[in-house]
Amino acid sequence: MAGHSGIARLLERVRPKLVQELDINKVFPRLLRRGIFTVSEEKQILGPADPKTRTETLLDFLCQKDRNVFADFCKTLEECAPQLLTCIVLESQQGKSNT
């Protein structure tokens, strides 16, 4: 999982599971406290009423962020959705073995 594009590819591979299972109402406030998103990004993420659409928008923005933001996202998952962090780690390892 090297660099920005590697993170984006990894997030794309686990996207369906994250969209299905991520509780945006638990995760997003924690990410906001970490200062990950701009006010404009926050408004775009919170705009849709549907939680799955919010999660998709959140993931779109995460794919554009750097490695440090991805690390903050993983720390947040560790706190409130460790099973999803496990999915990301396993997918990361599987991706490495396929290259």
Structure summary:
The chain has 99 residues and is mostly helical.
Description:
GO terms for molecular function: death domain binding; protease binding. This is CARD domain-containing protein. Residues 9-92 form the CARD domain. The chain is mainly α and 99 residues long. It has helices spanning 3-21, 24-33, 39-46, 51-64, 67-80, 82-97. Helix 1 (3-21) packs antiparallel against helix 4. The longest helix is centred in the first third of the chain and has 19 residues, at 3-21.
Which key phrases capture this entry?
82% helix, single chain, mainly alpha, 99 residues, Death Domain, Fas
Mean pLDDT: 92
**Gyration radius from CA atoms, angstroms:** 13 Å
Shape: globular
CATH homologous superfamily placement: Death Domain, Fas
How many helical elements?
6
- Please state the structural category: mainly alpha
- Can you tell me the CATH class? Mainly Alpha
The main β sheet shows up as: none
Distance between the termini: 11 Å
The low-confidence runs, each spanning 5 or more residues with pLDDT under 50, are none
Task: Please name the CATH architecture.
Answer: Orthogonal Bundle
Count every beta strand, where a strand is a DSSP E run of 2 or more residues: 0
* Integer tally of domains: 1
Strand content: under 5%
Under CATH, the topology can be stated as: Death Domain, Fas
Succession of helices and strands: HHHHHH
What proportion of the residues is helical, as a percent range?
Answer: over 70%
